Amino acid sequence: MSFSENYSLTLLDPENRLEDALRLDAWAFPMEIPFDDLLRLQHAIPWGRFWGVEARDSSASSELSGMYGAHTLRAFPVPGAEVACGWLTWVAVHPAHRRRGLLRSMMMHHFNDCRERGEAVSGLAAAEAGIYGRFGYGAATPQMSLTVPRGAALRVVAGSEALTPEMHIWDPALHGDEIARLHRDVARLPEGIGRPGWVTWETPELRESCDEDAPVRRHGLEALRVLIVRDASGAARGYARFRRKPVWDRDNAEGVVILRDIVALDPAATHLLWSILLDLDLTSRVDASLLPIDDPILSLLVDARAAKPVTHDLHWLRLIDVPRALAERRYAAPLDVVVGVRDELIPENAGLWRVRVNTEGAAEVTPSDVDPDFTLDVRELGAAHLGTVSLAALAQAGLVEVHRPAALARAATAWSWPVAAGANWIL
What we know:
This protein is 24% helix and 32% strand. The protein is of the alpha+beta class and 427 residues long. A twelve-stranded mixed β-sheet has the order 1-2-3-4-5-14-6-13-12-9-8-7, sandwiched between helices. Strands 17-16-15-18-19 form a five-stranded mixed β-sheet. β3 and β4 form a beta hairpin. The radius of gyration is 23 Å and the shape is globular. Residues 217-317 form the Eis-like acetyltransferase domain. Acetyl-CoA binds at residues 91-93, 99-104.
């Protein structure tokens, strides 16, 4: 779908259009930060793949009517593999230009751009959950939030007492490279399995944005802290970044540890990190979000119920090239099914696809002319792509048309994955 004659699309550059982009962002998303301060911050804008929509008859020549960008990821984890992904971001339409088809036109431009770049999947984090389903994105990565009381008992883990903790004020120059390595390495654990959806800081813009701890973004709280645990050789085995919020109730300390992210390469490191976070002076709880729904802390807590777990969506996935995307990932069991796919926006995806998976989990995907075993929209295919959302559960909700129940059972097993999709930051 092309833009109407009233609008044009242009590639934005940082030298001339940063202020225009931030002004539109401030229109689309209510801001607490003064605009002059915004200009001085790091922004994870994917320059070189950042597009603006301009009204041809606009009296303000630099004002943007819409914009979107895409991060070029080359190691996005899917079940059993890392693949190219065009990660949609910075999507905005000016309030004065809504209801004119700009979002749809930008989405179609993004889909075409991904196909030209050989990216079979696109992902995003949705500011509003009701928007992107109609463009074929399915909620594929859930997240969990916890409120863990101070002193919560943990089950014993051998080896945690042999690790050495250290705490620092967060300094990207001193700690950034080491933390980035830990964050990347945990995506491939457990060994031979890996965690689908665990996006890392692949580009300089993403790394700079995740490293930043600007005072204006702290909402009056203290500077970011980093806790690192090391083994006897001095190698880092895990980290946690956090800040504390002072709270007093009738002279009683009720402070809160706000956990930004936590990563551990083994159970002992997980145990020690949480043991320390749950025993900080003048605090009453740890608030943690962006945790995978099967995060080890749930199994380590003696009373997980007291942590009040809450789950909701995190990242959404869209298959841009269905046969390629299905062939790029690995599967949990052998399979031979024909899948009927509906896709109103990318006609090349629609049709019948035979998915044959060998004993090693590798798939061959080819067109078919036989009746499908089940039929679904590309949105549901994207939701199930990382192995956490079950095809059988989608069928129970009426979102998968089942023609052969036995085939659906086999497919639901093959599409699943031993580790839940997860990520610990919003891309």
